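Lecture 7 notes: from sequence to structure.
We start with the chain below.
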Amino acid sequence: MATLYLMVGLPCSGKTTRAKELENELFAIRLTPDEWHVNLFGHDVADPEHDKRHYLVEDMLWQIAARALSLGTNIILDFGFWAKEERDDYRARAQKLGARSEVVFMNADEDELLKRVRHRNQNLTNTIHYIPEELMLSSFRIFQKPDADELLPKEIDR
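Predicted structure tokens for the same chain:
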């Protein structure tokens, strides 16, 4: 049975690094929006169209994920999933396709995240988004950490 893995965490928490490890361990397809976004639109975080473009990329990646899940392939969505409501939505989508789902939570303290974002911004590539430090600071206030219940795999309701 296919499983949808949701990579949950703030920027620079290690989501993509762990997702790359998991894609090999789990024989999964990893879908990381930043890699697609930067290649298509560049480092456009200051552009007023950035969020609209990013959601479009995520929507297209979900279409690929949904098809792959329905064919029995494990999928890793490396979206961040900051809100519980968003995690619940994607888990319900997986269930409708007959797939299990799991949350993979990458946690790091705020000081470490700030250190990592500074390093990241000095070493940008075509697969890594620039993240303004102010955006990182604001993300600390809005990120909803998953609770213990969310970290349990969600099996298919029969």
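Points to note: Residues 3-142 form a domain with the Rossmann fold fold (CATH 3.40.50.300). The chain has one domain: 3-142.
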